[in-house]
Amino acid sequence: MSGRKRKFWGWGFDDQRVPEAEAAMVRESLSKTYGTALEAAAVPPEAGEFDLRAPRIKAPQSLARIAHDDAHERLVHAYGKSFPDSVRMFQRHVPEPPDVVFYPESARDVADVLDWASRENVAVIPFGGGSSVVGGVETAVGGSYRGVASLDLGRMGRVIEIDRASRSARIEAGAFGPALEAQLKPHHLTLRHFPQSFEFSTLGGWIATRSGGHFATLYTHIDDFVQAMEVVTPAGQFATRRLPGSGAGPQPERLMIGSEGTLGVITSADMRLQDAPKFRASAAIRFADFLSGAEAVRALSQSGLHPSNCRLIDAQEARGTGAGDGSASVLVLGFESADHPQDHKLARALELVRDHGGQWDPPRQGGHREGAAGAWRDAFLRAPFWREVIVPLGIIVDTFETAITWDRFAGFHANVTARMKAAMRAATGHEGRITCRFTHVYPDGPAPYFSFQVPGRFAVLMVQWRAIKEAANEIVVNEGGTITHHHAVGRDHRPGYGREVPPLFISMMQAAKAVSDPAAILNPGVLFDPVSRAVGVTGAMAR
Amino acid sequence: MSGRKRKFWGWGFDDQRVPEAEAAMVRESLSKTYGTALEAAAVPPEAGEFDLRAPRIKAPQSLARIAHDDAHERLVHAYGKSFPDSVRMFQRHVPEPPDVVFYPESARDVADVLDWASRENVAVIPFGGGSSVVGGVETAVGGSYRGVASLDLGRMGRVIEIDRASRSARIEAGAFGPALEAQLKPHHLTLRHFPQSFEFSTLGGWIATRSGGHFATLYTHIDDFVQAMEVVTPAGQFATRRLPGSGAGPQPERLMIGSEGTLGVITSADMRLQDAPKFRASAAIRFADFLSGAEAVRALSQSGLHPSNCRLIDAQEARGTGAGDGSASVLVLGFESADHPQDHKLARALELVRDHGGQWDPPRQGGHREGAAGAWRDAFLRAPFWREVIVPLGIIVDTFETAITWDRFAGFHANVTARMKAAMRAATGHEGRITCRFTHVYPDGPAPYFSFQVPGRFAVLMVQWRAIKEAANEIVVNEGGTITHHHAVGRDHRPGYGREVPPLFISMMQAAKAVSDPAAILNPGVLFDPVSRAVGVTGAMAR
């Protein structure tokens, strides 16, 4: 993070505040929506306002060089960047901050931290950019540890080696999106993985959480970009071989991808890269209703056209983000290639969407950042910042994402919408609003992303949010979806995860963890409990 | 297998013999190559010629309905279909046949077999089509078991349920390629997974061994087609959720895909299907040398054009299979789509190959089964049958496949070729020939497939073959390749696998196995030893 301080209570750097004019616009828009002049119940916190628990443990002399325990560092590493994380910061509620924060500079440093922590019964929370919205980096791990350390990979951000012929690079896990791309750019290569958190998240975090990129189809998930990786576990190192493909047993990388810091710490990875796109073709298509749009997207997803962008946004969300006027669902459709023009693809795609009632203005050449797509993108990138305006107003705003097969989508969408409205009403007494868009689409189903918003009361936001979140977890899993498509499981999705995944698989994972992390110090409470101790659900989802 | 008996000593059904005219052609061609009139040292075996060890165990009454122990069944299930398997059959050498063969008709039957075997210390070898070429279904498991059972899923071959909207189907694991496709065809869907073994291999076998399909890029690996699966293990069942995608923890299916029957028995899977292609465009391109062809393929692999066929065949192999005249390497290039014409893609691909010196005759429209591609395909499908002609002549013919990043390919190809020639000479005293083609290509590297042939002596073929195979394993792994790209590990690739994969990962897999297979009865000797007993390398690779 090269010196620039991160904001511990919200998105971005400490010096990045939402300009007052923009904040006023957000407040006014919400006040108008709810027909009452909303006022902030709290101002942003300062580190000095927190009476943090004294560190219970101290880094040994050998690790002093990379250890920090000042209030700002401890606060930055206490929570991720979810709605409840923000609420708890505005409420000055951080009962279990890390006792110490380590900034390793090498895999050797990581191994030394894990050795020490295993010996001393200190929980270790691997930390990339800290952008988790599911309680994935939270340090509230309960009382069975002598202490808790956050392990921030942020000083390990180098691109170590580039193989131009194979278009791949070995990159340290702590590389943040912008720095990573900046190092690749002189070689005319790009990882082309752009999650919403891009600016404030790291390669290692993307891999550990199975990050979904910005693109809608084909090469978008971090899973597919990993060629090899190096992992440090309490039981030793683990490096896989750089290969374009292999059929030798279960793929080792796949055991670590999505392990969310429970099995080991990813210290570097060989990543498959791409050439930067030169050819683009895009269009914004309107549908009278969301389900017709979904049928059009199904046709596209099964066409083999592989659009890079295929974001269907319902009418209400389209209006909210400036992508539409609220009269129609909007499909932001785009194609990109580094090698050849995409006009034929767009032309065929437009035939398909017309078959499902889609209408559009004449497509723009190369204009993927303009019009509906551009408006949507701007709102998308600003949204995480707006939370610092919204939380003190006592408004609950959150999102959840899932994936479901096409055969069940229509019923799923209707039931999730109806039950979430009921859950919001039950928790707050107010009418909430829930909108939906597709972030990714597959031939066998979409990944719907739901955003919800309902007025709550600042003092009890955690209780209200938790009731709604629990309902969302239950609805999604009951209706056949996955508990998470790309936000990860963390602590907030554990109840749903436990119902989605076969218990025998969990037992097998626990056994694997007992090998790589015999003292069960790594990210306890995330995904599943270690066999040797029940940690259970802690943090924001704890009751 | 619906009544038609399989050949226990070679490829295909018992009634499928290579016609004498075709056999004579193969013999004459080899005699000409080696400048001597080759004669068969053995005739095909009959089941009655084997003095099989009496079954050491008997199926319990409750499983009698699905148990068989006649000589033909025991011989069919003793080995796979590799070169050494064929040699040992021609040599009438089957010291460790299965004691009993089970044909379960349901997941419940599978569970009952595993329960009984776990109690009775009987090793169980899951068997799909038995087409393994790496010792994956071999029943020679050593002396620490009371007996060994083969578990043939061949009676579980139904397509259970089709979801047309999501293009997916739930299919029993014992479905053979042709029967599977025949059941999908009325629904205008196809799995479109065509390994060379297609006719004689099963869905469950494909998943358990990470089968590579016929197509060169994109959707070709069985890994990518699995939407969900049901697995029966000695510790219980394990069913995953039908989802188009998920980011919830390490993907459970990926633990089982490639587990080669060591962790559980796949009983059914939900598979992603495709529409049958309607549009095709193809060409056969000649390159003066293989490495220029490889550079052209690299450009294609990184272009985003995603050819369905992109098979670069070196000059010698092109001549041997009728795809060329031996003066040039041949690239068989093809595009397919169910949705839109592929001419633009082919046109762009031809620009790319021309930049690397490729030359071609005017492309044919829709002619992917004609010309070089057709000739190659015919030879490809007949090759497994020819082994029954070649083995008794005392000629060693075998193949191995790998994958390697582009930056290392040229050196890899040169070194593998040189060292394999040396290994063949050392083992037999004769000059051998080794050829190469690409079966699959990725943006970061090709999957080279090597075929080798050298005259040996019938009586000592096993010793000679083993020396060469060990050299091949060592060369491939030393040079940075993977021990297997799509043939699987089985018993024959274990030494290389043990060097390729991190020991800590193996320990984690062993721990997972101790959960799902606590008595360690499942396919011992494949991939890795169970923690509870060292089985080591048995069968064809044993010394």
CATH architecture of the domain at 279-478 in chain A: 3-Layer(aba) Sandwich
Quickly give the structural class of chain A: alpha+beta
Please state roughly what percent of the residues of chain A sit in beta strands, choosing from under 5%, 5-15%, 15-25%, 25-35%, 35-45% or over 45%. Answer: 15-25%
Quaternary state, please?
A: homodimer
What percent of residues of chain A adopt helix (DSSP H or I)?
25-40%
Distance between the termini of chain A: 35 Å
Secondary structure tally: strands of chain A: 17
CATH class of the domain at 279-478 in chain A: Alpha Beta
Shape of chain A: globular
Gyration radius of chain A (Cα, Å) is 23 Å
Number of helices of chain A: 16
* Spatial strand sequence of the major β-sheet of chain A: 5-6-9-7-8
CATH superfamily of the domain at 279-478 in chain A: FAD-linked oxidase, cap domain/gating helix
Mean pLDDT of chain A: 95
Largest interface: A-B, 94 and 94 residues
Q: Characterize the largest beta sheet of chain A: strand count, sense, and whether it forms a barrel.
A: 5 strands, antiparallel
CATH topology of the domain at 279-478 in chain A, which one?
Vanillyl-alcohol Oxidase, Chain A, domain 3
Stretches with pLDDT under 50, minimum 5 residues of chain A: none
